[in-house]
Amino acid sequence: AWHALWREAPGDPALAARAAWGALESGRLADAAAWVVLGRLGEPRSAALAAVEARVREAGGLTGAGGARMPLRSLEWAALACALALGAALEMARRRTAAVLLALALLVAVTPGIEARVLRAAPLRVVAREVALAGADIVLAPGEVVRAESVAGAAVRVRAGRDLVGTVPADALLVPESVAR
To answer: What is the mean pLDDT of residues 23-48?
Structure first.
């Protein structure tokens, strides 16, 4: 049922949080981590997602998931852009000031879209089962998040953290979108 709701409203962090909670309660740490990664693609500052994310981290998941997003929601970015544009309109007598304010308004207006594209373009994968990272002499645990760099047949070259690079079997990784299908 949660998957059907997700297909109707993809990107809802609260829905992703509920699905992550269910996966965590069922002992599926990798699925829970994948749902949190999906939920992070939606609007920032979801209390439900933050609570579940903390539980998934406590369980050992989301290592390598990266830092926080910009804290403003899209509506707040839009309000800020409108305020800057209004400031530009009020400063029309001073053309340089108005031009700077208008340029800032345009930059602020496109920021959420740019951030969303960057987040969606990140080739994040969730480790589905314990697997050795060939070439780095470490073992990745279920629920850890890695960045896929390339795919060569049944092997995926991944980056774990900043410095660890190696290969793992493709079947040991979850594409976050796959849990929503």
So the answer is: 95
Q: What DSSP designation does 31 have?
A: H
Q: Per-residue DSSP letters for 42-83?
A: S-S--HHHHHHHHHHHHTT--TT------S--HHHHHHHHHH
Q: What is the DSSP letter of 95?
A: H
Tokens of 40: 């992070």
The three-point CA angle 157-121-163 to 5° equals 40
Lateral strand order in the sheet of 155-160: 164-169, 155-160, 145-152, 124-127, 173-174
- Is pTM beyond 0.90 here? no
- List, for residues 90-117, the tens digit of each pLDDT value: 999 999 999 999 999 999 999 999 998 9
Q: For every residue of 110-147, which 3-state class applies, written as one string? A: HHHHHHHHHHHHCCEEEECCCEEEECCCEEECCCCEEE
